[in-house]
Amino acid sequence: MGSRAGGEINNWKLADHPKLPKGKTIAVVVLDGWGEAPPNQYNCIHVAGTPTMDSFKKGAPKRWRLIKAHGTAVGLPGDDDMGNSEVGHNALGAGRIYAQGAKLVDLALASGKIYEGDGFKYIRECFENGTLHLIGLLSDGGVHSRLDQLELFMKGASEHGAKRIRVHILTDGRDVLDGTSIGFTETLEKDLAQLREKGIDAKIASGGGRMYVTMDRYENDWNVVKRGWDAQVLGEAPHKFKSALEAVKKLREEPNANDQYLPPFVIVDENGNPVGPIKDGDAVVTFNFRADRIVMLAKALEYENFDKFDRVRFPKIRYAGMLQYDGELKLPSHFLVSPPEIERTSGEYLVHNGIRTFACSETVKFGHVTFFWNGNRSGYFNPEMEKYVEVPSDIGIPFNVQPNMKALEIAEKAKEAILSGKFHQVRVNLANGDMVGHTGDIKATIVGCKAVDEAVRIIVDAIEQVGGIYVITADHGNAEDMAKRDKSGKPLLDKNGNVQILTSHTLNPVPIAIGGPGLAPSVRFRGDLPNAGLANVAATVMNLHGFQAPNDYEPTLIEVVE
Ligand SMILES: O=C(O)[C@H](O)COP(=O)(O)O
Ligand SMILES: [Mn+2]
Ligand SMILES: [Mn+2]
User: Fold this and answer.
1) CATH 3.40.1000.70 correct for 102-337
2) Which ligand has an atom closest to residue 475 CA?
């Protein structure tokens, strides 16, 4: 069973667990955006009333506990960094903590290595006669991108020969407070003015809100990418402005407008011509480090054959990603920073050891329980042993309008898989806490949390029926706190005296519960790992499947007492 991993021949055989049996059906349930926070009116999980999830708490500390889901515990640069789905699912599936994209980009910029790599050399060829275009999320959220990295890179690229720079901004309001796009645009305008003083022709060329322009994911809606393409490449958009700051301010004045959903706009000169469409001979960099919401654009920029929408014009450019976004597809083929090499994930080990696996979520989180879980790897390890099911997400309906999302459908699929007896592991992601939480709509988020609790009930009932085991956890916080707070924890008010709504993830820990008739009464959480995090879950699940985890995995959360 040898195969290559990390340049070595890897032995995939896992040692038997000395005490725990094999053959149990295990449900592994990830509640997306479901942290633990004090009960108050901004804690949607608390307000919703979640009897199933609450019932697990009674098992504390032996069968319910909290684990870390943010900062260095999941490979992010610092402990002020909130968790996110990519790093969360990576840690859950890989069982080890990897320095993640954000940190790798920081290091490459600080050392200057980013300018020495093949990716930069490739795009630099265009600097003499062409424009360097930078496309990405404009915020300091640190989930998909960071403004300070963009700033450093623009400065560095200009010092390494870029003479003409055009930035195509995507406004955030999801990983950061709504309305902050104005400040970020101001900052960027100042940076560009400084570059102009140095003789660089540097401008913002286009923009739009991330959820409406460019940053779709898992091919849910290609129109989102097309809207961006039209503005960024063709220089066409329904709104034209002389300045990006004016654009963001004006478009935010529309009723119900917010940063996440700003319509696409292009910046035009005195004659009404777009200042920076992407043309033959230009260089393009997508400066997001995280893959899921930029890889669709990467396909449009890179693939000669492409049928997802009519590109009208396919410019001959040199394109590089900040990172390579898909290691299997080798996409994009040029990139500035090498992504973490996540290998020997728990999913791959378990499949090699005979564990038949079912994974399911709805479109918006499907890649989370498959691609991210498997160390940013597409597809099956062994199609005969695995089945991945995607429940189509609603398209074009905001998540606060349909806050139940597909939680019950996913639960029914999981139930079916559990009762079928065909799988040892049934793994799902329930998206509501996160996706509805990001809308900032408290009422809808409460409804979403209720739906998640019901879905968990369905899955746990199925596990009861087959004598199995459940492991219920989450990837990071979101729905448990919808208020921006000061250091003392008091909600912050805006200038009108209203509480500032937190649409982003949080720094809170997340729960993990284990149970089910298949779990021996002698199994309980250890008391000696107070700082455990998401990366400790993989070894735990391996144990419950009857195996010992590899030595370099973070330690298991459980012990077997006589
Ligand atoms: O991409 C998003 O929707 C948010 O920026 C992060 O959410 P996720 O990490 O839960 O996917
Ligand atoms: Mn998530
Ligand atoms: Mn999220």
Assistant:
1) no
2) 2
